[in-house]
Design brief:
Blueprint (H helix, E strand, L loop, with lengths): L2 H21 L31 H16 L4 H15 L30 H4 L2 H13 L9 H9 L11 H11 L3
Helix pairs in contact: 2-3, 2-5, 3-6, 3-7
Length: 181
């Protein structure tokens, strides 16, 4: 592996770790609600992916929506949260995957206990994990109107920062289908 490439990879890994350490620590409960009666329309970017959801994935999407409502956040927060979970876990509440696991990442958002997101039990609880993600989201200035992938990446600090965009249409459709149910 050439030196420039190796340094780039190590630099990205260091940024991801640092971002997880500083963005990850969160409280178990969301703070004050945001007053918004209408979702902010933000245009979908790039080619879109879609998966058919099974009952478990649909239940997890509904749990994300319920936690978003509990936090007093608008539909846009649920769209960003669901798109993030679609990218991170395909809306599956993943436990420890052994050698296939990325470090100690767990749950719907692939949050890491070692980065301060919570205990394994907490971050595999869909409500807790969503509130933790959305607490990080609320700390991003202008998240309501920025591109979804930028908002998600600022919280998640992924090695693939543009990957979240591909799930925006499906996440929007899921939220519109279940927000009022």
């Amino acid at each position: 592996m050439n030196t420039i490439f190796r340094k780039s990879v190590l630099g990205i890994a260091g940024l991801a770790f640092t971002g997880g350490v500083f963005a990850g620590p969160v409280a178990a409960h969301a703070a004050e609600p945001v007053n918004s009666t209408k979702p902010v329309a933000v245009s979908v970017q790039g080619a879109q992916s879609h998966i058919d959801l099974n009952d478990e994935q649909t239940a997890n999407a509904k749990a994300i929506i319920a936690a978003t409502k509990k936090a007093g956040l608008p539909e846009r927060a649920a769209v960003i949260s669901i798109a993030t979970s679609l990218q991170e876990s395909k809306l599956e509440n993943l436990g420890h995957l052994g050698d296939a696991n990325d470090h100690d990442s767990l749950g719907l958002f692939q949050q890491r206990p070692s980065s301060g997101w919570g205990t394994p039990e907490q971050i595999t609880n869909p409500e807790y994990a969503t509130l933790a993600f959305e607490k990080g989201l609320k700390q991003v200035d202008g998240w309501e109107t920025m591109p979804l992938t930028e908002a998600a990446q600022t919280v998640q600090v992924s090695a693939y920062p543009d990957a979240y965009a591909q799930w925006e249409q499906q996440a929007t459709d899921i939220v519109h289908q279940h927000w009022n149910s």
